[in-house]
């Protein structure tokens, strides 16, 4: 593969706890339910050199999270607007659900945000895997149907974006004609999932849609992404698995008639960096509390619906046969994430405690563990080998240490984007 010629893109996660002190201890200073604290985190991430902030959105009550930690009260699109008003040089990546949104409403919101975040807006389009009964849907559609709906959703957004072209604003002072009405046209879309007349009723700032992000490692997810996305959010716990996934994405892009060099792949990464390698591994391997173990178990049982570990002792051997015979082909939700969990379960003999600890500390994502220089070396290697175009931070982080010791080193090596005048997320991605 060629060596990456664009900067290493780094994305901070608004779901992370940006401090070492957990929320339940008296020394905790960060409150995820405080807008001021979240905006302060965004400002620190911007100053550190992060390109963007990502806001996930898992619609539907999640007991594996809600019972153990504070839950962000901010809806992604609204939070993007709040941060845009106070943090001037970082991009935002809010999440939009296909199943639980209408393309006309989303196009209006994106257009509005694009004015607030010119060149600094992306959107994460997901098909959702939970919460359907909150929207009058009895059973969540199978993945192929959801991705087909996502493709039509995006087509409608594109058509609406073109329905009010920026050049239609003529602002003729002599005739007092502001818009060339002949240039604003309905789209009259009549498809499998949507009927939308159009045109959009809020002016579009730029003819170019904000950067589109999609996640997924399943065949359906990859095929959807290579047809329409600019960036794929991917999960792989090892460099070999990441390389194989990157090659698979490139091959599918070529088969779809797309230049694979126009599609970026960004991997989730849990960064554990300390002054020494020994200290980093000690932090990663710190024993989990009982509440954290329960949270890990509930999360796995949520991904692998029908599988249970509640009846097995924490220090008993993991009943690997439950994973080996799990009917993943019948799973209608996040199959790619479930496949990674099944792979972890069968990779080595585990106790239940060991397996839950491994799943909690890393999940399906990469762990980058070591001294500051070792962590930076590893991130640089992934980038220069064209395996990763960037990373999104997973899990809780010590933002101050990360900014000074990791991003500082990456900047000195010339790997981060130069936020000079006219900077844009698309330029950092090498897609302009």
Describe, in plain words, how this protein is organized in 3D.
- With 432 residues, the protein is α/β, with parallel strands linked by helices.
- It has one domain: Luciferase-like domain (TIM Barrel), CATH 3.20.20.
- It has 15 helices and 13 strands.
- The chain has helices at 35-48, 63-66, 76-84, 103-116, 143-163, 219-228, 239-255, 277-284, 290-303, 320-324, 335-345, 352-361, 372-384, 399-412, 425-428, and strands at 9-13, 52-55, 91-97, 122-126, 169-172, 177-179, 189-190, 195-196, 211-215, 231-234, 264-274, 366-371, 390-393.
- The strands form three sheets. The chain has an eight-stranded parallel beta barrel, surrounded by seven helices. It has a two-stranded antiparallel sheet with strand order 5-6.
- A hairpin with a 4-residue loop joins β7 (189-190) and β8 (195-196).
- α4 (103-116) packs across α5 (143-163).
- The longest helix has 21 residues, at 143-163.
- The protein is globular, with a radius of gyration of 22 Å.
- The mean pLDDT is 89.
> Helix count?
15
Largest sheet entry: 8 strands, parallel, barrel
Mean pLDDT: 89
CATH class: Alpha Beta
Category by helix and strand content:
alpha/beta
Q: Distance N terminus to C terminus?
A: 21 Å
* Poorly predicted ranges: none
State the domain count.
Answer: 1
Give me the CATH fold name: TIM Barrel
Radius of gyration: 22 Å
Task: Write out the CATH superfamily name.
Answer: Luciferase-like domain
Helix content: 25-40%
What is the 3D shape? globular
Residue fraction in strands: 5-15%
Give the helices and strands as they follow along the chain.
EHEHHEHEHEEEEEHEHEHHHHHEHEHH
Arrangement of strands in the largest sheet: 1-2-3-4-9-10-11-13
CATH architectural label? Alpha-Beta Barrel
Tally the beta strands. 13
